[in-house]
Specification:
Layout (H helix, E strand, L loop, with lengths): L5 H14 L1 H12 L9 H15 L4 E2 L9 H16 L4 E6 L2 H15 L2 H6 L9 E2 L3 E3 L5 E6 L11 E4 L11 H15 L10 E3 L1
Parallel strand pairs: 1-7, 2-5, 2-6, 6-7
Antiparallel strand pairs: 3-4, 4-5
Helix pairs in contact: 1-2, 2-4, 3-4, 4-5
Length: 205
């Protein structure tokens, strides 16, 4: 049996990245953090599997509870939207956070990934310029994209297929009944209504 040449091996690797979020995540991490080594802990593969399942399942729901610095935000808020948009540029993703600075930092890393040579080699269709490329909004040529919003901010006119809620309340505020109720009202009365289809839209927290 003949060995695959370099071009065929690269094609197979990219096919795996398009189909398996964990495979894509491992390589995307190197784009976001050049020189950093990603520990191959089994929890990360489980996390990526659950994120992929929740994003694709009709009315998918997932709550991720892990300690800080375990790549929750990198996987869910940065890399997952990029992977989904590479597979289907019409997908609409909303990422909600408590602070503007946090939302912009995640959005910046997302744009860093989707503009990389690595990303364009995995998803050749990504070479088409986006319609909108702003700090908190990235819209693909197909009309999908990633939109960052903050707790209490306006989401009028924004719809999504997948809602990612990442650090929607500060740890210090979480001790307050008033603050917790404020955030709950924001979700119930504002965020949830932004799902384009309540029967198929997914939510990841």
């Amino acid at each position: 049996m003949n060995e695959l040449n370099a071009q065929d091996r690269a094609a197979c690797a990219n096919a795996a990245r398009r189909q398996n979020f964990y495979v894509f995540m491992c390589d995307a991490f190197g784009v976001l953090h050049p020189g950093a080594e990603l520990a191959e802990d089994s929890y990360l593969e489980a996390l990526c599997f659950q994120l992929q399942e929740a994003a694709h399942e009709d009315k998918g729901r997932l709550i991720v509870t892990l300690p800080p610095r375990y790549l929750k935000s990198v996987a869910a808020s940065i890399v997952l939207p990029a992977w989904l948009l590479g597979r289907d540029g019409a997908t609409k993703v909303m990422v909600a956070s408590y602070a503007e600075a946090l939302a912009k930092d995640h959005a910046r890393q997302f744009r860093q990934l989707v503009k990389s040579g690595f990303y364009k080699s995995v998803f050749p269709g990504a070479t088409v310029p986006p319609r909108v490329d702003k700090a908190n909004e990235y819209t693909t040529a197909e009309g999908g994209g990633r939109r960052a919003v903050t707790e209490g901010g306006s989401v009028t006119g924004i719809g999504c297929d997948l809602m990612i809620i990442d650090d929607i309340i500060k740890a210090s505020d979480a001790r307050s009944d008033v603050n917790r109720e404020r955030v709950r009202q924001f979700f119930d009365n504002t965020l949830y209504s932004r799902l384009n289809d309540k029967q198929t839209g997914s939510i990841i927290v």
